[in-house]
Design goal:
The protein has one domain. The chain is 94% helix and 0% strand. It contains three helices and no strands.
Length: 134
């Protein structure tokens, strides 16, 4: 490799490295990261919501079948059977909601973490930009 070509390659790599460290690029990276995490969070939330809705439908269908089985009984046996079916439904709905709420809380926490990191990157880029100006 010739000396001129080697110097040109070193100069090019230095200019690329200098470009990558500009405050504008750092701010753009931070914004892109926020958008990406937001999109992921939205997708996770939509999936969790659909799962929750499907779970509620299945729980209600199972409850209906259980109640129909109770109709074959009579008296206190029927009452006890219906109470048990209602209790199972209540527990299953609570479990499904808890799972959905946990996913929501987790994605919100992830979003907050990324937002804080992105804001820190933006602040750092602003500070560097201010230091270069003065």
């Amino acid at each position: 490799m010739s000396a001129k070509l080697g110097v040109a390659l070193v100069a090019a790599s230095l200019s690329i490295a200098a470009f990558a460290a500009t405050p504008e690029v750092e701010k753009a990276d931070a914004k892109a990261e926020k958008k990406s995490v937001r999109a992921d969070a939205d997708a996770q939330h939509d999936q969790a919501k659909a799962h929750y809705k499907a779970a509620k439908q299945k729980i209600n269908a199972d409850h209906k079948v259980a109640k129909e089985k109770c109709d074959a009984l009579s008296g206190k046996s029927e009452d006890a059977c219906e109470e048990e079916a209602d209790a199972k439904r209540t527990k299953a709905l609570a479990d499904a909601k808890a799972e959905y709420e946990q996913v929501k809380a987790s994605t919100q926490a992830d979003e907050k973490k990324v937002k804080a990191r992105a804001e820190a990157k933006e602040d750092k880029a602003d500070a560097r930009d201010d230091a270069r100006r003065y």
